[in-house]
């Protein structure tokens, strides 16, 4: 197993964050890891944490705009993960990849509605 690929920034330092997003967007991250760990586990945890925080802020009677901003803050990441699964699954092919694509879309609908 090789070390994670890193990319150098303008200052010469490697950017692992850029490597994380780039590998997912380009479809080079393993589909199982992308779907189960990144989308289902981490993505769901982030959404639950920010929804709970939004409810706490609402309970503290803070401005509704702030509450909504906190609640919807993970949406760009949610869309990124869903499209990353979609793109990676297209490269992989097969029934498993198709089911993961369907699962990612259903997950996105669930986190947007709830």
UniProtKB/TrEMBL annotation:
Looking at the UniProt entry, the stretches that span the membrane are 39-58, 64-86, 93-113
Keywords attached to this Swiss-Prot or TrEMBL record, sorted alphabetically, are: Membrane, Transmembrane, Transmembrane helix
**Name of the featured protein:** Uncharacterized protein
The organism named in the record is Mesorhizobium temperatum
């Amino acid at each position: 197993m090789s070390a994670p690929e890193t990319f150098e920034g303008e200052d010469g330092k490697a950017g692992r964050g850029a490597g994380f997003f780039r590998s997912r967007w380009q479809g080079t991250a393993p589909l199982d890891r992308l779907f189960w760990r990144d989308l289902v586990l981490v993505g769901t945890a982030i959404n639950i944490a920010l929804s709970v925080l939004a409810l706490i802020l609402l309970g503290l009677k803070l401005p509704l705009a702030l509450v909504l901003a906190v609640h919807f803050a993970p949406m760009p990441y949610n869309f990124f993960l869903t499209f990353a699964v979609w793109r990676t699954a297209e490269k992989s092919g097969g029934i498993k990849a198709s089911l993961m694509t369907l699962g990612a879309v259903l997950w996105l609908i669930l986190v947007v509605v709830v």
